[in-house]
Amino acid sequence: MATPLRFDMVLPNGEPLRWNTPGARWGGTVEAVTAAIADKSKTMSNQNKVSAALVQQSVTDILAAYATIKQKLPFLINLTDDERAHLPHIGDKSGEVLTQTLNFVAQFPEALPATFNIPEFQKDGALFNPLETVAMASAQNDQIIQDTRLALRSDLLLAILDVYAFAKANNRNGAYDVYVNSMKGHFANPPR
């Protein structure tokens, strides 16, 4: 037989019955409320895409490795946003055009004016493939680092939302007001 709800009762989970308890309604039953609370807890995020630790020594070692990379590539430069947008350059698939041009310059240097710096062009041409190899490896590492960072931030946001929801739902006698009120400002406009 179903147990009717009373306005001053304590539910089987130890919580007092409140007006906003999931499943509570006029003429409702304890069993309906218990089922609604169980359904609501199932909506909790179980996402955990990243589960790892990064100790300080590893961070130190990684930063030292980056410092070594910068030391091995002392010619790296920073471009402005405008330069990135407007600097003319060969594309990713222009290796064959570069090779043909380097071969032409090597075979027919007399075809070029004296103002054309052949040694500098050959030096830049020789740098192209090794730097492309390093850049592709760096881009792949950067992509997996950025993907992992995004997944970690997602895990954290969903966990924070769960904690906030639980704190609001279980805020008896205002015990969690400081946390709930500080979080209200962050979640005033929920994500779409």
Descriptive account of the structure:
The chain is an all-alpha fold. It has two domains: 43 residues, no CATH class; 114 residues, no CATH class. Helices cover 58% and strands 0% of the residues. Helix 4 packs antiparallel against helix 5. The longest helix is centred in the last third of the chain and has 52 residues. The radius of gyration is 32 Å and the shape is rod-shaped. The two termini are 43 Å apart. The model has no long low-confidence stretch (mean pLDDT 87).
Order of helices and strands: HHHHHH
Number of helices: 6
Protein structure class: mainly alpha
- Radius of gyration, whole Å: 32 Å
Shape: rod-shaped
Helix content: 55-70%
Number of strands: 0
Low-confidence stretches: none
Overall pLDDT, averaged?
87
Please give the alpha-carbon distance between the first and last residues.
43 Å
Which band does the percent of strand residues land in? under 5%
Largest sheet: none
How many distinct folded domains? 2
Oligomer: single chain
